[in-house]
Amino acid sequence: MSRPATQANQTSPRTAPESRSAGGTALADRINPFLPPIFITLILLVGNLSFGILESYSKTLLAIATAIAAEMVMGRIFLRKWPHPASAYITGISVGILLRSPAYWPYGLCSAISITSKYALRFRGRHIWNPSNFGICAMLVLASQAVASLSIQWGNNFASLIVIWVLGAVIVWRARRLHITLTYVTCFIALSFLRAQIVGDPWQAEISPITGPMYQLFIFFMITDPKTTVRSRIGQSVVAVAIAVLEFFFRLNSCIYAPLYALFWVGPAALLIEMAIDSRRKRLVDADTVFEQRAARA
Q: Do 186 and 297 fall into the same domain?
């Protein structure tokens, strides 16, 4: 009778940590999807309370509600399931922060275009544009008389900037994408010094845009979007460099929406190149398999 009790006492210390670990992992899995929405909400609140970056809360709420509604409807129709609303919330709040218009309709339309792009513009089962990037670029081109994009800086309140950067760095680090942000920021700063030499502006003026709320969304959400980035770490870093370089040339031509347009062109091109390489590798592997099978039969 004593042996079973001894075995039970010996096994319980081992199983308890495993149970706690499993429980902790499950809790983390439930919390993680909400971290990016919480962080982007913090950007909105800090930016608006400090500098008034929003046109209005009601327009931002319209963008969020439209994005979530469109996501639910299209996810149910095309994927036969109810998608998690976190992604649509991020898209909607990004539209609310980045878009500028005296009217309400551009906010709803931009969110609808953004979410629709996820389901309509797909290649081999993947959407290749970051939704909010696509929607905002589409509105800037198609409705340029009615909309603009946010481009102001944080000003001299570096305390707000530090809080945003620390929290953003933690979130993208947890998502294993901090190297993308750091690569882009490093290239942006280096190219800012070069651009200052070319155009004759003070280097502080060339670097200052990265302190603005538009860039906080860009470096922590748009270029690190897991659904629209290539798989390999090296590839992700190369794409970040390419975005920074193309943005550099856009800025030389006085394009104030340079980062948005750079991502619009580079991001999908990188995904298509990756898909083409994967397809070629698969054909080579299939050809090798067929050759080996024929050799075995011979």
A: yes
